[in-house]
UniProtKB/TrEMBL annotation:
<dbReference type="InterPro" id="IPR000157">
    <property type="entry name" value="TIR_dom"/>
</dbReference>
<dbReference type="Pfam" id="PF01582">
    <property type="entry name" value="TIR"/>
</dbReference>
<dbReference type="GO" id="GO:0007165">
    <property type="term" value="P:signal transduction"/>
</dbReference>
<dbReference type="InterPro" id="IPR035897">
    <property type="entry name" value="Toll_tir_struct_dom_sf"/>
</dbReference>
<keyword id="KW-0378">Hydrolase</keyword>
<protein>
    <recommendedName>
        <fullName>ADP-ribosyl cyclase/cyclic ADP-ribose hydrolase</fullName>
        <ecNumber>3.2.2.6</ecNumber>
    </recommendedName>
</protein>
<dbReference type="GO" id="GO:0005634">
    <property type="term" value="C:nucleus"/>
</dbReference>
<feature type="domain" description="TIR">
    <location>
        <begin position="18"/>
        <end position="158"/>
    </location>
</feature>
<keyword id="KW-0520">NAD</keyword>
<dbReference type="GO" id="GO:0061809">
    <property type="term" value="F:NAD+ nucleosidase activity, cyclic ADP-ribose generating"/>
</dbReference>
Length: 158
């Protein structure tokens, strides 16, 4: 009995099941009805299972458990950094979760698309004052933005 328990314990591995090939992170008001929609359609057309949030997700101060789970169940995240991305606590929480998941899994890729913003812009700096009451969260957001901004990515102006 003990031998079978030991062998089953030693061979038991938690295998991460992914549901999505790609998770798209974006600021809806900036890119939902143009770049992000086109990218989403192109990914699906090419056989990828891509998660793009829709209007039915509940919006609040924290990302929903559904959205958090979708991030965890994705192999790749594409972060579309646009003019107003860093002004959204929702986007920044999502980004922090993406970076956290990327840090846990070496095989999880994160790609950045700089849509109408320069990768060297300090777009978050002007919002730090607004969110200063939650210093710990601001530090987490800044670290996530710095991490993603340092990635090789695509810089799109139009």
């Amino acid at each position: 009995m003990a031998a079978s328990h030991t062998s089953s314990s030693s061979t038991h591995h938690q295998i991460l099941q992914t549901k999505y090939d790609v998770f798209l992170s974006f600021r809806g008001e900036d890119t939902r009805n143009n770049f992000t929609d086109h990218l989403h359609v192109a990914l699906i057309r090419n056989g990828f299972v891509a998660f793009k949030d829709d209007e039915t997700l509940d919006r609040g101060n924290e990302i929903s458990s559904e959205l958090s789970k979708a991030i965890e169940e994705s192999n790749v995240s594409i972060v579309i950094l646009s003019k107003n991305y860093a002004s959204s606590p929702w986007c920044l929480d999502e980004l922090a979760k993406i970076v956290e998941c990327g840090n846990k899994r070496n095989d999880r890729k994160v790609f950045a698309v700089f849509y109408g913003v320069d990768p060297t812009d300090r777009v978050f700096a002007k919002y730090e004052e607004e969110f200063k009451e939650n210093h710990e969260k601001v530090l987490k957001w800044r670290a996530a933005l710095t991490r993603v901004a340092s990635l090789a990515g695509w810089h799109l102006q139009n």
